[in-house]
Amino acid sequence: MIVRTLEEARNSERRVVAPNGNWESVRLSLKDDGMGFSFHITTIHAGTETHIWYQNHLETVYCISGEGEIHTLADGKTYPIRPGTVYMLDKHDEHYLRANRGVDMVMACAFNPPLSGKEVHDENGVYPVDNN
Ligand code: 9YT
Asked: What distance in angstroms lies between residue 40's CA and the mean position of ligand 1's atoms?
């Protein structure tokens, strides 16, 4: 069995900070855990907008705290996000993720296939697929 805490993961290489400062993420579980998905606690900082397009991954995201919205580009729809909301990027949906001003949004995220931990968003908000 594998057991770890958010606190110890936060104080390790598992914590990644976006180059533009919009978000940070603690990768609680990665590919090498062998679970078939990776599991992250991501903080989207208040008042930010981030362009994301995971062309190589499916992602499920659950809002733990904070409020914001997600805007999908293909259909022009905007959905509010608040604690208890889950969204699933089942079509590799290109989107803007926005956190309202005043309070950070904290999200639990699962990726399929799992991230290896080395990924950084490229300029299109894409993570390359990990073939290792
Ligand atoms: C909310 C969201 O899309 N989180 C993705 C995970 C985060 N960007 C990471 O761990 O790299």
From this structure: 7
